[in-house]
Amino acid sequence: MRPSKRAADELRSVTLERAVARYAEGSCLVSFGNTRVLCTASLEERGPGWLRGSGKGWVTAEYSMLPRATHERTRREVNSGKPSGRTQEIQRLIGRSLRAVTNLQAIGEKQITVDCDVIQADGGTRTAAITGAWVALHECFTWMRARSIISVDPLRDHVAAVSCGIHKGTPVLDLDYAEDSAAETDANFVLTGSGGIVEVQGTAEGKPFSEGELLELLRLAKGGVADLVALQKQALA
């Protein structure tokens, strides 16, 4: 039995609340159980300098965790002068995930920055951030189309992410902190609505996992992402 009493293929309670930030062009407050992330998408009139003259835009992301998002206060990274390696890795992952389903040519030479701020962490902050960031980005593009800044929807597909792992010998979906901290294998899957694989991150914490176990984790992830995409569509309806 899982600590949360969920079935092996059961997500935590997931909510996606859009239009929660008054000034942002797009926003979403996403909850995966007790993990909560505020995602805001901001339009910037200029893209990065290295894309100037290309006719192409850019989508990027920043990620941070509030000091009391965790059990004990963590120091703000701004006070240390630079983001941690973990923070840089996660925000690059979020940016890659969003760009994988975005037609950058359709944006023009503009940039959208999606900020993902973890309000409360209980495992799966990066997967929740990606899932909510897509909704915030969609809202930003809707805002742009309503003002004739762009003429077509740049999004080609949905993208969402979920964690999977092996806990006490059993492959399970959407690990919370209690499971994540004790899992023998921990993995994150970023998938599109049509089933394409954007990124897979997997690590054995104890003994190596088998190819069969990896395929079982992928099977769980596909089911979980299908449910998340359905919730994204519901949030936008």
UniProtKB/TrEMBL annotation:
Pfam families: RNase_PH (PF01138), RNase_PH_C (PF03725). Keywords: Nucleotidyltransferase, RNA-binding, rRNA processing, Transferase, tRNA processing, tRNA-binding. Residues 10-138, 159-223 form the Exoribonuclease phosphorolytic domain. Gene3D superfamilies: GHMP Kinase, N-terminal domain. PROSITE patterns: RIBONUCLEASE_PH. Its EC number is 2.7.7.56. It catalyses: tRNA(n+1) + phosphate = tRNA(n) + a ribonucleoside 5'-diphosphate. Phosphate binds at R86, G124, T125, R126. Homohexameric ring arranged as a trimer of dimers. PANTHER family: EXOSOME COMPLEX COMPONENT (PTHR11953), EXOSOME COMPLEX COMPONENT RRP41 (PTHR11953:SF0). Phosphorolytic 3'-5' exoribonuclease that plays an important role in tRNA 3'-end maturation. Removes nucleotide residues following the 3'-CCA terminus of tRNAs; can also add nucleotides to the ends of RNA molecules by using nucleoside diphosphates as substrates, but this may not be physiologically important. Probably plays a role in initiation of 16S rRNA degradation (leading to ribosome degradation) during starvation. Belongs to the RNase PH family. This is Ribonuclease PH. The gene is rph.
